[in-house]
Amino acid sequence: MEYRNLGRTGVQVSRLCLGCMMFGWKTSEEDSFKVIDRALDAGINFLDTANIYGRGSSEEVVGKALKRNGKRDRIVLATKVHFRMDDKDPNAYGNSRRHIIEQCEQSLKRLQTDRIDLYQIHRPMSEIPIDETLRALDDLVRSGKVRYLGTTTFGAWQIVESLWVSKELGLNRFVTDQPPYNILDRRIERELIPAAQSYGLGLIPWSPLAAGFLTGKYRKGEARPADARLQQENEWYNRHFTDEAFNLAEQIVEYAKKKGCTPSQFALSWCLHQKGITSPIIGPRTMDQFEDNLRALEISLTDEDRAFVDRIAPSGRVTIDYYEADFGPSAYRW
Asked: Catalytic: 53?
């Protein structure tokens, strides 16, 4: 396993990050334990979850797993805050001081730990001034409950604004961003990657397989697999299923066959070898999916491979739109 600095920090993280979104609600507790243990044995030391995943279930299972195997101190543990945790409480949502501090305490309990290594704001929120968010996060760092701060799906200008506010007010700054990034959505190459390289942010992309679309499991004109993540009908899922996306996915499937790997391994290898990328997040539901993803580390990427991807999906191009126009929560119904 290779390791890289987490942004401008001295913390070393594995080249793949284990996303724990499925654990505890889509994946059974026992199977979740097995995948986590296997990941740690393989050298992965970076785990990412969020309070909203199963509304606490994922954090609970991750906490149990690390308590069970006794390896918490070896792990860079990341979680997130932003999305609604109570349908009746208007304050149980967002990037306010109240919600951040309250949810940090809850996450610590569920994770059975005294600190969060990377605490991330799960989405930007224009209604809340960024200085309120940063002051709350800064207090958590100074109290020792949080080590480092990150963002998720922020625009480049929002990150730069936050860095300016941190500098002006003497607050701890964001050191990472977690953007959607894959062969079907390369827009972060326009502004976010250059900004991250300029300001020392680590990039830990989510959905490097386009929510499974780049695995080849979805075929044009065929029913969606019953166990697939995108099987359910909703606006965000449905935006994946375009003629252009199907065409590109099919080309990747055929190219991967010639290269002697699975399409998911090829897509992951491409993502982790892109400039500015620290550690793509894999989100396996099963052990078989994890083993397939892990082997992406063995795939060498050639100039011919890069040229192929650039030809079918040029830099900056968007085939599947992962962003909401207003960066709002409406696309995510948990």
From this structure: yes
